[in-house]
Amino acid sequence: MKWEELTSPKIAALDKSIPVVMNIAAIEQHGPHLPLATDALIGEHFISRLNAERGEQVLVLPQIKVCCSRHHMDFAGTLTASHTTLLEYISEIAASVFQAGFQTFVLLNSHGGNQAIGQVAVEKIGADYPDRQVALATWWSLAREELKALSESGPFGTGHACELETSLIQLIAPHLVEAPVPDGLHYERMFAQADGDMLSAGSASLYRSMKEISGGSGVVGAVETASAEKGQRISDIVTAQLVRFVDELRDYGTRRTYGN
Ligand SMILES: [Zn+2]
Q1: Which partner from 44, 129, 214, 217 sits 20 to 30 angstroms from 253, CA to CA?
Q2: Rounded distance from Cα 3 to ligand 1 centre (Å)
Q3: What are the φ and ψ backbone dihedral angles of 171, each rounded to 5 degrees?
Q4: Range 24-29 average pLDDT
Q5: Could you tell me if residue 5 is inside a domain?
């Protein structure tokens, strides 16, 4: 169910154990071939599939499209909010959801730049509301092992506007993919402990802007192995894990709340 399409009396009458899920996305550069809305399109896609799978057993909030993209600001078209603004905004929406009586608030993240502040949001809101469930799931982390098995890009091949994201946009919005798709591996190496990709994080973290890490291309990783067919496989894998996560969270919240 979509929160914004229901009436207030219907929201008031719902079972409050139904998980409430909100996508945090981005409007930012995605290389020369993908639209600025890439992360928002991908987030909306997974939210729609979750909604289709769970129907009246899930509530989806309006997505937050503009989030934390300062590290992309060297590229035209990127929009950003600060970490503190996003933290406050998410916290205030969560407070509204909890005031309506719901027990479980889930952030579905579709953008790398939201991972750290998303985790802070979970820890802050979770501590503010210790009797509720507050959770964060980033789509590529939810299905990391299956995506590793599917990826053909090799080390540092998945990062940004890469094999995974390009495949998904080729599936979801092929009319928005510009040709030619970039070739070669786009990744400026640092050193072993700091290097990593979407599916294999480094053992430490070192800040670099997207301009630096992409060598100026706006792409991190490899794109040539992307396809709409692979996008469908990614979509199915991630949707299955997302549905499972939301189901498990609801079960856990019910056990926790009612002590079964
Ligand atoms: Zn992206």
Answers
A1: 44
A2: 25
A3: -80, -50
A4: 98
A5: no
